[in-house]
Specification:
disordered C terminus; 437 residues; globular; 4-stranded parallel sheet; 14 helices; alpha/beta; 6-stranded parallel sheet; binds uridine-5'-diphosphate
Length: 437
């Protein structure tokens, strides 16, 4: 795997450390459990880190020297991708070190992996995790991604050997992306701008969702927080877990609180609790809560270790996730796995994971009134909430356990290898058979 900015070893909750880190760590672990050797290549952002760290048997994290060995914003990393790719080429030029397939996570990893894959013959799968076209639509000029991102993502979506999308909404976005890109580049003199688009519009594509550790995130276990303090007039608790960035829409929940009497909101995420005073989004949320007269009911607690998160989620009557957009959204799944109903935005991956009226509710993004209206009946009726919670757990166990997700990913990789073998004849694929069983 290549995961240029998101190391599976990183602490979570910071601005650039979230779902991708968890996904890469868990997928690598689950593939290793199925007998594969996995190496995760990530950019060295700490001079003192060993070059190779064994995360667990079958999974090594390799720190690649590409750019200064310190944390950099991910939007500044593109310039270092040629060096990253050169290091991959150097290693994979040795057939004994070349993998059977490389799975790149995020577009810049895709750029490096495709360059290295082309130079060495290693087939390339890409999971975007997020698309620049969607980010630009929602964030406009606040989008700090390099301008070339959208074009490079379109190129990757056409030229990779496999695109692994994580939800159905992403498929529609990918089709739009390549169509727009192709029509922008089409010959304007042509009467039909889509004339050239009959073949190879999009690489072979599979939808494989992100997974969740259903043993770690489970309904039975301790609760981190005591029941809401009735002496202070509190009866219900909402929990939100996310990186503290504006697009996660935590302010929508704060804005819904004035009509949700007796309800407190615990906001998990951002840096350490004691550093939140310097976090612009935390400062903004606190000020907003104060202005709306709900400051006493909003608790920003900072990042919580992934290991401790199930106990926090179990302490919620409902988990709320109201992003403007969401490429997949692991937190809703983690909450569902804990048997907690989820009320979320009807966007991105939540459209697949949350079943309205069965496991939770979906509301339009940035709509505090709709959010309050969806939450009120759930909070008022614990039996309904418990029923949603049971259905949520069942849905996650049935569809989103990592074993299933890893098996589906492996199947998609096997198709890539089979296509290569057919195309190249019987002598290809010299590096196959390196799986541990
Ligand atoms: N997370 C965590 N502690 C925190 C904040 C987040 O462990 O304080 C984890 C969370 O459990 C989830 C991931 O970070 O696994 C966030 O992934 P998600 O897909 O919800 O959002 P992203 O950060 O990728 O946009």
């Amino acid at each position: 795997m290549v995961s240029e900015h998101a190391s599976p070893l990183a602490a979570l909750g910071g601005v650039d450390a979230g779902g991708q880190n968890v996904h890469v760590a868990a997928l690598a672990t689950a593939l290793a459990r199925r007998g594969h050797d996995v190496e995760v290549f990530t950019r060295r952002d700490d001079a003192s880190a060993a070059q190779r760290v064994t995360m667990l048997p079958g999974v090594d994290v390799v720190h690649v020297d590409a750019g200064p060995p310190r944390a950099l914003p991910k939007d500044d990393l593109l310039v270092w991708m040629p060096a990253f790719a050169a290091e991959l080429v150097r290693r994979w030029s040795d057939p004994l070190l070349a993998p059977d397939v490389v799975h790149a996570h995020f577009w810049m990893s895709g750029v490096a992996a495709l360059e290295a894959g082309r130079a060495t013959g290693v087939p390339v799968a890409v999971t975007f995790h997020a698309l620049g076209s969607v980010k630009r639509r929602h964030q406009g000029d606040d989008d700090s991604s390099p301008l070339v991102r959208v074009r490079l993502e379109a190129a990757l979506a056409r030229e990779a050997d496999l695109v692994v999308a994580t939800c159905t909404d992403e498929v529609a976005e990918l089709v739009d992306l390549v169509l727009c890109d192709a029509s922008a580049g089409a010959d304007v003199a042509s009467s039909d701008p889509f004339e050239s688009l009959t073949d190879d519009l999009l690489a072979p594509l599979r939808v494989v969702p992100c997974g969740v550790d259903v043993e770690h995130f489970c309904p039975d276990g301790p609760r981190a927080l005591p029941v809401p303090d009735a002496a202070r007039g509190l009866r219900h608790r909402l929990v939100s877990v996310s990186r503290l960035v504006e697009r996660k829409g935590v302010d929508t929940i704060v804005r819904a609180l004035p009509v949700l009497e007796g309800t407190e909101l615990v906001v998990v995420g951002g840096g350490e609790r004691e550093d939140l005073g310097r976090d612009p989004e935390a400062v903004r949320l606190r000020a907003l809560a104060g202005d709306l007269g709900v400051g006493e009911r909003v608790h920003l607690v900072g990042r919580v270790d992934h290991a401790d998160l199930p106990a926090v989620l179990r302490s919620a009557d409902a988990v709320v996730a109201t992003p403007w957009y969401e490429p997949f959204g692991l937190v809703p799944l983690e909450a569902m796995a804990c048997g907690v109903p989820v009320v979320g935005s009807a966007v991105g991956g939540l459209l697949d994971t949350v079943t309205p009226g069965v496991t939770g509710e979906l509301v339009p993004p940035r709509d505090p009134a709709a959010l309050a209206a969806a939450l009120a009946p759930l909070l008022a009726d614990p039996t309904l909430a418990a029923r949603y919670g049971r259905a949520a757990r069942a849905r996650v166990v049935e569809r989103y356990g990592w074993d299933r997700v890893a098996a589906a990913t492996e199947e998609a990789f096997a198709e890539v290898l089979a296509r290569r073998d057919v195309a190249a004849g019987p002598l290809r694929h010299a590096s196959s058979g390196r799986a541990r069983r």
